[in-house]
Amino acid sequence: MTAAVVILAAGSGRRLGGAAKALLRDSQGRSFLEVVAARARAAGVTEIAVVVGPPYGDEVSAEVERLSLDVVRNPNPARGMASSVALGFAHLLETATAGSALLWPVDHAAVTGATVSAVLAAAGEIAVPTYGGRGGHPTLFRVSVWPELAACADAADGARSVVRSDAARVNRFAVDDPGVLADVDTPEQLG
Questions:
Q1: Do 16 and 184 touch, CB atoms closer than 8 A?
Q2: Domain 3-190 belongs to what architecture?
Q3: Cα–Cα distance for residue pair 126/140, rounded to 1 Å
Q4: pLDDT score at 189
């Protein structure tokens, strides 16, 4: 079964002092977007959609195009992350042939390739990797859940409302990878 991914990269990086997280660099000089896309591809993901938006939409779009990924534009990401989730999954509903998709915030670039493979192989309609009992990213959603995600923009808890709607369809499983929790929101978290 093929897989897709929605990479969320429309944030304004306010807590970072105003920076596009997708363009942050790892220790080898690769953009976070390049790292996430490479790990997804290495695990067999064939369709990659990146949600971008102002104020860094043009810069991030240039990186998306350099990496030969699909651009999905969020004209108003200030509405919240759920608006980007909804646009990304609406895009997949129209274009993807995959049977499942990862939801992956671009600032979770420290996730290992082994973890990505484990998430893709996990059972359940929704698969959430956990570390230390806390749920992380990337999260897997089977195609049957995509319409709910495409409609989550106005839900009180966004995509979390979809995950919390029916515990029986969620597989929470432990991974030995703190990267599933390691997002970058402040300059201190970059080091």
A1: yes
A2: Alpha-Beta Complex (3.90)
A3: 5
A4: 60
